[in-house]
From TrEMBL:
One cellular component (GO) term of this entry: extracellular region
The name this protein goes by in its record: endo-polygalacturonase
Family indicated by similarity: Belongs to the glycosyl hydrolase 28 family.
InterPro entries (UniProt xref): Glyco_hydro_28, Glycosyl_hydrlase_28, PbH1, Pectin_lyas_fold, Pectin_lyase_fold/virulence
PANTHER family per record: ENDOPOLYGALACTURONASE D-RELATED, POLYGALACTURONASE
Catalytic reaction(s) noted: (1,4-alpha-D-galacturonosyl)n+m + H2O = (1,4-alpha-D-galacturonosyl)n + (1,4-alpha-D-galacturonosyl)m
Annotated EC: 3.2.1.15
Phosphoprotein as UniProt keyword: no
Top-tier EC class: hydrolase
SMART domains (UniProt xref): PbH1
GO molecular function, one term: polygalacturonase activity
Annotated source species: Phaedon cochleariae
Keyword terms of this UniProt record: Cell wall biogenesis/degradation, Disulfide bond, Glycoprotein, Glycosidase, Hydrolase, Repeat, Secreted, Signal
Signal peptide feature range: 1-20
Length: 374
């Protein structure tokens, strides 16, 4: 995967740009810190509960969370949380999450040299959540309203990195580094950022290296993902049909733009599960997406998840726009475009300037978008 040096260099140019941006944005951290002298510091796990209860301006700094417990940050309304130093977690074989943040009108800001270390290297065993040792399922679990999370550095997630439920939230300058997990192919199910039951979400200006979905969206509406750059993942993804309750499968009005994804299994990726309830994925846009050396399918829309070759029509995919999607696939079995829709469940797909090179095999399409010849 990393032998594609030219592609990797191209991606690193992007990454350097993001890192420089994140470093300059750390001025926001310093500005927040200097607004008041009344910050309450927690320099050990034992101090956190009291500080969070008493204060709305909080700094957590450089400590380890004991094994088998969650770092609970139930923030008061209008709180500002600053993160300094390394926050790490003792190793225990449990479900997690390692860190839980909730609140309303909150700001969470990372300092220039901070790190949230999930210690995934102590758990990875070549298996995901369904086998092997029990792993904490999430490093950071968020349930919040009207807030922002900026310049957050996360390393070595045992499984999922960031799980989001909320409304009116911005995530900017996330740097998720799971590259150690490529050694021996040990890390699995390390989805980077995903959200569900959410509305009005912005994810931007972020750099992600992981081994599963880079961004995954479920049962949500009104979101923009922009200037996010991924390496080694499974895709810029949507998942639906996972719930038997119909209203919990709808996804509406989501845009990916100005993103890149490289060295990954898939690039653009929508999965629906035929065994689930009914639902609709609608008004979806991918614009200006650079796909670099994808090993399986650059663009994949399949309605046969876990029932290979037997697509269902319980989830409709309507109003799907692809505009200026370009890049390469590599490998003997790689294809540019794969579409497997259920009977009558795909409609109003409009594609423009979709250009994927390097495929040894022809596209596979049982539905044909406007503007693209499969």
């Amino acid at each position: 995967m990393f032998s594609h040096l030219k592609s990797l260099v191209s991606l690193l140019v992007i990454v350097v740009g993001i890192t420089a941006s994140s470093t300059s944005e750390s001025l926001e951290y310093l500005t927040a810190k200097n607004l008041t002298s009344d910050y309450c510091y927690a320099r050990s796990y034992a101090e956190v509960a009291d500080v969070v209860k008493r204060c709305t301006h909080i700094c957590i700094e450089n400590f380890e969370v004991p094994a088998g417990v969650t770092l609970q940050l139930n923030l008061q309304k209008h709180s500002v949380l600053l993160i300094e130093g390394t926050i790490s977690f003792g190793v225990a074989h449990w479900d997690g999450p390692l860190m839980y943040i909730t609140g309303e009108f909150i700001q969470v800001i990372g300092g220039t040299n901070h790190l949230i270390h999930g210690r995934g290297e102590q758990y990875w065993d070549g298996n995901g959540g369904a086998a092997g040792v029990t792993k904490p399922e999430r490093v950071m679990s968020i349930n919040a309203k009207r807030g922002s999370f900026k310049n957050i550095n996360i390393k070595n997630c045992p499984m999922f990195c960031v799980s989001i439920i909320g409304t009116d939230l911005t995530f900017s300058g996330f740097n998720i580094d799971n590259k150690d997990g490529f050694k021996g192919g040990l890390a699995k199910n390390t989805d980077a950022m995903g959200f569900v039951y959410s509305d009005n979400i912005l994810i931007e200006n972020s750099n992600i290296v992981n081994q599963d979905d880079c961004i995954n969206i479920m049962a949500s509406s009104n979101a923009v993902i922009r200037n996010v750059h991924c390496w080694g993942s499974h895709g810029l993804s949507f998942s639906s049909g996972l719930s038997n309750t119909d209203e919990n499968n709808d996804i509406h009005n989501v845009t990916f733009k100005d993103c890149s994804i490289g060295g990954s299994l898939n690039g653009i990726h929508i999965l629906t599960m035929p065994s689930g309830g009914r639902g609709k994925i609608s008004q979806i846009t991918y614009r200006n997406i650079n796909i670099i050396d994808v090993t399986q399918r650059a663009i994949e829309f399949r309605q046969d998840y876990l029932r290979n070759g037997q697509p269902g029509n319980n989830i409709r995919i309507d109003d799907l726009t692809l505009d200026n999607i370009y890049g390469t696939v590599t490998g003997r079995s790689a294809v540019g475009v794969y579409i497997n829709c259920g009977d009558g469940s795909c409609s109003n797909w409009n594609w423009r300037d979709v250009r994927i090179t390097g495929a040894k095999n022809k596209d596979t399409c049982n539905f044909h978008p406007n503007g693209y010849s499969c």
